[in-house]
Design goal:
This protein has one helix and five strands; from the N terminus they run E-E-E-E-E-H. The chain is an alpha+beta fold. It has one domain. The protein is globular, with a radius of gyration of 14 Å.
Length: about 100
């Protein structure tokens, strides 16, 4: 898992800082799995099941400064395929992704 964060601008122009959980490629496009915040784990809480809402974003290219731009995945077929990839990747780290 990554500790990287990105700033995502919503449709209403609000900026939200997102934590990048994982990255993958599918059909030549880059995708990232992000969450607004991840729970802080302590040794006592490590066994606790905690739910975090996530989003899958896809790369739509880079701007003049080389910053990569992302947008939400709107196509259901594409979203389902990429969700399966992330689910398999996360299961390797004993993390369950419910689609």
């Amino acid at each position: 898992m990554s500790d990287e964060t990105i700033v995502f601008e919503t449709e209403d122009g609000e900026e939200v800082e997102l934590v990048v959980i994982d990255e993958t490629q599918f059909n030549g496009t880059s995708y990232i799995l992000v969450a607004e915040a991840l729970p802080e784990e302590t040794d006592e809480e490590a066994e606790t099941d905690e739910t975090v809402d996530v989003m899958i974003l896809k790369s739509v290219g880079s701007d003049e400064e080389g910053e990569e731009s992302f947008e939400t995945v709107e196509d259901d077929t594409e979203l389902e395929a990429v969700s399966k990839i992330f689910k398999e990747l996360l299961e390797q780290d004993d993390i369950q992704l419910e689609v």
